[in-house]
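Homework help board

Subject: predicted structure for assignment chain

Our instructor gave us this sequence and asked us to write out the predicted structure in token form, then describe one feature. I got the tokens but I'm not sure how to describe them. Can anyone check?
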Amino acid sequence: MEEIKRPKVGVVAIVQHGEKSLLGLRKTGHSPGSWGFPGGELIFGESPEDFLIRKTKEETGLAIKNLRFLTFTNYFYQDINEQYVSLFFLAESDSDQAIDTEGKHEEWRWYEWNKFPEPLTKPIDQILNQFPNKPF
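My token output:
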């Protein structure tokens, strides 16, 4: 019997500090060489909010708070034959001192909405189409 492929659930934090959002330049994973928000694939048994609080701290060293669901995207990564349904949350950080604590990003930087560097991960393009003006 043929195995049925199922979508994966991504959970992503749009972390704000003042008027800027945090983006990291990926070295590994899907879409290396592109800029993306902190996050990853949801782990069984963990809530999306708890996952993001833990994962953002692991990836950037930042503590986040005031998480609020924003939207979701549905994206097919043709190059790796995977589908991700990603939940996007807005979050805040009191610090702007993000560092690459896992070795998976070249760097973390803060950008104003709609002034993001290129290339972006494809789901972020979808978010910018949904929210041409900043959603916070």
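Reply (TA_rk): Your tokens look well-formed. For the description, you could write something like this. The helical segments are 48-60, 122-130. That's the kind of observation they're looking for.
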